Amino acid sequence: MSVPTTILAIESSCDETSAAVCRDGRIYSNVIASQKVHEQYGGVVPELASRAHMQNIVPVVDAAIKQSGFGLKDLNAIAFTQAPGLIGALLVGAQFAKSLSMALGVPLIAVHHMQAHVLANLIPERKPSFPFLCLTVSGGHTQIVVCRSPLELEVIGQTIDDAAGEAFDKSAKLLGLPYPGGPLIDKYAKAGNPQKFQFAEPQIPGLNFSFSGVKTSILYFLQAGTAKDPQFIQDNLADLCASVQERIVSILIGKLRRAARETGIRQVCIAGGVSANSGLRNAVQATGKKEGWEVFIPAFEYCTDNAAMIAITGYYKLRAGETAELSIPASARSEW
Questions:
Q1: What one-character-per-residue DSSP string does 257-276 give?
Q2: Which residues contact 97 (CB under 8 A, 6 or more apart)?
Q3: Do the first three CATH levels of 6-119+303-319 and 127-297 match, i.e. the same topology?
Q4: The pLDDT of residue 336
């Protein structure tokens, strides 16, 4: 009988401090502490994020271990987000993970944040089979990935400028919505007409994305509208949110459909913070029915930054013998 493999994972790449415990590929706890301090500034302030991580990491790790039902003595490895992210935030999680690894005498596993988002689709009992396509969409990244195995991933399309999540948040700011605005666009869009207003669609060849022109189109449209009527945004907020969401989602779906047709892959997943957007989730499901895809969408708690996705990635890396030295540095930017 094989010995169980139990991993504690830590995620601290941006403004969520999270810890999770995984045993043999099953998640037993996933604790997340969000940071409200950034709301008054309209975006994440790196220095404040680092300080909040230092305050949160001990109670979050303690809660994750207690909720799992295991103890420190049961841990076989410590996984952590090594890259990419805010360097100060990453360092808090990295140094804590290294210290715990050294104190317990167990291996250290370095995890790439974007790989972990993709592998969040391997957490549920209903999992995609290999190979599968994954549209990974967050505030800092927009990618289409071919996943041939848990540790064999290839980026076949990505944004050449801004990420879709940034387009949502910047559009929300233009609409006068507080930070984080992406979820609010989703909320108001439910009551709006997505065809009411039209915004530019970038003509980018291949499978790459561009969202800078979309943001500019929205900016100029709103400026023209408010020049004629100062109440234009307030009077049309739901329709504006629905139209903005429709344009961003249509760009994402168009590229994903093209990728599926070019690769012939019919197992299709989404991941990342923007995969919590109801418009995108519905569009992927609807397109999947038309295109004959088998669609996989993670639960909401595994879409935004969380340690469960770090844990499942750490599990597959440990099985493959991919551990890290204590000297491995955290990295704000890292290709994979």
A1: HHHHHHH---EEEEESGGGG
A2: 10, 78, 79, 80, 108
A3: yes
A4: 64
Amino acid found at 116? A
Mean pLDDT calculated for residue range 176-198: 95
Domain 6-119+303-319 has CATH 3.40.50.300: no
Rounded CA-CA distance 29/241 in Å is: 35
pTM: 0.94
pLDDT value of residue 46: 84
Domain map (residue ranges) of the chain:
6-119+303-319, 127-297
* DSSP classification of residue 277: -
The span from the CA of 238 to the CA of 194, in Å, is 9
> What are the beta bridge partners of residue 295?
268
The rounded distance, in Å, linking the Cα atoms of 138 and 299 is 15
CATH topology of domain 127-297: Nucleotidyltransferase; domain 5 (3.30.420)
User: Which residue pairs, CB below 8 angstroms and at least 24 apart, start in 299-302?
Assistant: 299/123, 299/124, 300/276, 301/30, 301/32, 302/30, 302/120, 302/123
* Beta strand ranges found along the chain (DSSP E): 6-11, 16-23, 26-34, 77-83, 108-112, 132-137, 142-149, 152-158, 267-271, 294-296
Closest CA to 185 of 279, 282, 253: 279
Structure-token pair, residue 112: 């790439």
Burial class of residue 67 in the structure, from the number of CB atoms within 10 Å of its CB (0-12 exposed, 13-18 middle, 19+ buried): middle
What pLDDT is attached to residue 74?
A: 97
The two tokens of residue 209 are: 């994305």
Q: How many CB atoms lie within 10 A of CB 11?
A: 30
Give the pLDDT score at 333.
83
Amino acid at the residue 285? Q
- Work out the number of other CB atoms within 10 angstroms of the CB of residue 251: 20
